[in-house]
Amino acid sequence: MRNGGSQERFQRRAPCKGARPDRAPNQTGDPVLMPQRRASDQGWVKFVGWAACLILAASLTYTFVRALTRGPAGIDPLFFGLQSLASTLFLVYSVRMRNRIFIAANAVAVANALGTLAVALGARGG
């Protein structure tokens, strides 16, 4: 078999009529969506995400440490119970989305919310 026969078999086809620029034909000539870089993959977006994660972690940790050192006065167990539930659901969502920034932020949020809730409920006797 000559090279010519093999080249003929794998010859590139012209793009399909009316094909969009973000699509390219596959081997059968059908348009296939080309992978595009997600906005969340850009460096500055990751920086903003990690900055938000650190600020959230700092504020929640401050609330938890304050409850430990000054006592649970002013802590609403219902608020921290609902925050624990919401943070747990966001953590599950983040794991399913495989987003490390939100996994880290929501894991810290769950830990702090549950810790603050435990301090508040412990001081009230359950």
Question: Which key terms come to mind for this protein?
Answer:
single chain; mainly alpha; two-stranded antiparallel sheet; elongated
Write the layout of secondary structure elements.
Layout: H1 3-9, E1 23-25, E2 31-33, H2 43-70, H3 77-97, H4 100-124
Antiparallel strand pairs: 1-2
Helix pairs in contact: 2-4, 3-4
For the report, how would you describe the main beta sheet?
A: 2 strands, antiparallel
Which percent range describes the beta-strand content? under 5%
- State the secondary-structure class: mainly alpha
Query: SSE order in H/E notation?
Result: HEEHHH
Shape: elongated
Number of strands: 2
Count of DSSP-assigned helices: 4
> Strand order, biggest sheet?
1-2
The overall pLDDT, averaged over residues, is 75
Helicity level, as a percent range?
55-70%
Distance between the termini: 83 Å
Low-confidence stretches: none
Radius of gyration from CA coordinates: 26 Å
Please explain how this structure is put together.
The protein is mostly helical and 126 residues long. The protein has helices at 3-9, 43-70, 77-97, 100-124, and strands at residues 23-25, 31-33. It contains four helices and two strands. α2 runs parallel beside α4. It has a two-stranded antiparallel sheet. The chain is 64% helix and 5% strand.
